[in-house]
Every structure is written in C-alpha cells, then in structure tokens.
Amino acid sequence: MRITVGVSGGIAAYKAAELVRALQRQALEVHVVMTEAACKFVQPLTFAALTGHRVITSLWEEPGPTEGADSSIEHIGEAQWTEALVVAPATANILAKFAHGIADDFLATMYLATTAPVLVAPAMNVHMWEHPATQANLEILRERGVRVIEPGTGSLACGTVGVGRMAEPEAIADTVLNALGRRHDLAGEVVLVTAGGTREAVDPVRYLGNRSSGKMGYALADAAQSRGAKVILVSGPSALHPPTHCEFVKVTTAEQMRVAVLARMGEATMVIKAAAVADYRPVHVSDHKLKRSGPITLELAPTEDILAEVVRQRRPGQLIVGFAAETENRMENGRAKLLRKGADAIVVNDVSSEALGIESDMNAATFLTTSTSIELPAMTKRKLADRILDEISTLRRPRSLSVELDDATPQERVLSQSNSIASSRRQLIVE
Ligand code: CTP
Questions:
Q1: If residue 171 lies in a helix (H) or strand (E), which one and from where to where?
Q2: Total number of domains in the chain
Q3: Would 374 disulfide with which of 64, 276, 330, 367, CB 3.0-4.6 Å?
C-alpha cells in the first residue's frame, strides 16, 4: 500500500523520520512531502535516504511525474498515487490551510486534490492548540472526515507543559494501519465502552468525583471502531472528543451511567467497563449552595455496581470486561475483583504511579482471566487499547489457542502472532 507522509514546520518534524520507518516496517511504500518551514527543521535528504524517493517540497520544482499516477502534474499525480495522506507533525498553520481550502504550497494543494483518507497528527504549543481558531479548524476537518490523531500531554519544546505534544510515531503508524482497514478483525462486533469518571452532586455547584480523564476508554472506543466494530461509548464528563462515527452517550452520575449501559447492553457483543464509577453518592443533595459554617458531615450511600449488574443480565456469547484501579496489592485485589464481579476478564491498573494511568497518555496493565495473567507493559493508551482488544478477541477463540505459546503447534503460533499476543508473556496461573 502507498502512503504519503506530509511534514509541516514544527520541532516534531524530526519524529516524522521515525514514522516513515514505522510505516515501512509494515511493508508500506512511503513518499514524503515537506512544507518550506519543515525544511528548516529537517533536511529533505533525510527522508529521501529513508524512502529512496525524491522528497517534494515545492509546487514549482521541475519534477518527473509520480510513478504509477495518471497525471503528469505533480500534485495531482501524488494525490492520485497515495492511498492515505498522513500529516505529522501538523502545525496550526497547515490545519488552518486545510480547513479553509488555501492551496499555496504543495502539501495544502495535494490535500485538496486527494480523495484518499487524510490523517493529521497535530503538534504545537498548548495555547496554540487551545486557541478557538485551532479548535474550530479541527472541528471543520473532523466533520469532513479527517482523522485527528490527538496530541499528548507533556513538556513541550517551547518550555511549557500541556497538551500539544505530537502522538508517538508508533501510535500514528498504528492508526494509519487501522484507518487503511489493515485490521478489520472486529467487524460485526458491537462494543459498548464506558469511560471517564462520574460526578455525584453535593449541592448545585459541588460534586464528589475522581481524576479519571477518560483517555483509556476513549482509546478503546477508537481502537474498536478502527478495527471494524460498531461502538457505543457511554462517557462521564471528559474533555476528549469521541471517535467520529460512534454512538456517544454523555452521562454525569453513576446512576445515569447505569441506566444508559443497561438500556444499550442488549445490542452489545462486548461490554468493556473502563469508567471510574463513583462508589458512593451523597444521600442528601442540597438544593442551595452549602454555606461555610464549621465542619460538616456528608452522609454517603453506595451506588449500584454496574459491572456486577451487567454480568447478571448478560446474554449468551456476550463478553464482559471490567477494569480494576488499584494502588496496593494489585494482583490480589484484581483477582478478587474478577471473581466477585463475575466478568470474563479484568484489566488491572496500578493507579499509584504519576507517570502511568490516571490522566497520563501512558498506561501499563495486567489482563487477568480466571486462567491467565498477561502483562501488558507501559505503552501509549491507544496502543494498550489495541493490545486489550487483542486479548479480548482471544477469549472468543477455542481454549486450545490460549495455552502457553511454547506448547502451541506451528499453526497456532502463527495465528497467535497474527493477533500480536506473542509479544507479551503468556503465563498460565496454577492455582
Ligand atoms: N464499577 C461499576 N460500578 C460501580 C463501581 C465500579 O461498574 N459502582 C466497575 C468499573 O467500571 C470497573 C470495575 O467495576 O470496571 C472495578 O472498579 P473499581 O473502582 O476498580 O472497583 P470497585 O468495584 O469500585 O471496588 P473498590 O473501589 O473497592 O476497589
């Protein structure tokens, strides 16, 4: 398959070289188009050496026609040749040009001329990212079907900390592969995902909540949809954008989440409960803002356990996966939760670490069933989402394929590898 990587002028331009390599490792043929500003950060020669093709940097060069294209006009030829245009990094400027149809350089002109899927991986200063102009441009692009690969949070080259760091090249390559339909193994599945935290009102302005950002659940929704599933995303309050084509149900409280999940679970073939649901809610919700007058005591009542209820109402063939957020005795608590809730699997997270888990773009987990425990080491949440889906998919396969890979037949090993479970250590728990 043929991919064009568009590089615009940001400091993350150097990471585009890693993206090119990651795409080539998947046997994709890659061309690179650079804006003039991108050439200030990285030499076109770098990409020419990696791809073995001339790098296109201007509308006005004297080129040869793109090999295999019908048109001898280069931007039209490249636009016809490519099967996906991925722009990484995508600056605020190139996003604005795309959104408003400004065609004053090769990349922006090619964007208008191509009918192939377009993906953009923005990278910029946090204030530029948050600016209403940038957000409005992204909204226009999303509506037109452009896939936005959300930037991560972290320290940025400009010295500030916040959202704006380009997604990791491996994660961008994964998204490109998914968008190209290279993995369509969840076609026919209906995946109900819960995400984010819930909020339990104390008075009209205060609530009890938690730090869940929704990133893990949204990553699962995105990954499942990219792999061909129909996705229903039930989410507590979150700043994230849901995947464009999923059914999105916005809730606030644990009770609203319970009602939404129970109403839709009948349709689902898989239920993945990544939400951090409040365990308690105030018994009395004040109808006026509570005034400050010394210590107060809130009386709390337990909320319903939605996961346990989903398990009670499950229909045959439905797979149910919960999450466990633990700060100590991770495995012991995770295993107890698996048995108590009766789910098919529990994804156990250690939420005591600052670098991983809650609010972070990275996570590590253990995928736990009654018979196996699979370590999924630290990786981006988007990548972890695919790994979790790989493991959930193996639950549908006959038991014979869930044995130690060392014991598997060559055919089983090939099948297992194609589901990318070979990379994690598979270990049978002997009770
Ligand atoms: N969960 C749920 N309804 C609740 C509480 C939790 O459906 N009222 C689900 C979560 O979505 C998650 C799993 O149960 O999939 C485990 O959540 P977690 O907060 O780790 O465990 P709890 O059941 O709340 O137990 P504890 O807080 O005591 O660890």
A1: helix 169-179
A2: 2
A3: 367
- Whether residue 198 has its Cβ less than 6 Å from ligand 1: no
Q: What is the pLDDT of residues 115-128, one digit of tens each?
A: 999 999 999 999 99
Average pLDDT of the residues of the chain:
87
pLDDT in tens, 142-177: 999 999 999 988 777 777 788 899 999 988 998 898
Helices (H), 26-165: 36-41, 44-51, 74-81, 92-100, 106-113, 126-130, 132-143
The CA–CA distances, whole Å, from 362 to 101, 116, 175, 391 equal: 35, 30, 16, 19
> Which atom of ligand 1 lies nearest, measured to the CA of 194?
11
Cross-strand pairs, 6 = 33, 87
Q: 152 and 240 in one domain?
A: no
> Does a structural domain hold residue 411?
no
How far does the centroid of ligand 1 lie from the alpha carbon of residue 324, in Å? 7
CB contact set of 304 (below 8 Å; sequence gap of 6+): 254, 255, 258
Shared-domain flag, residues 151 and 267: no
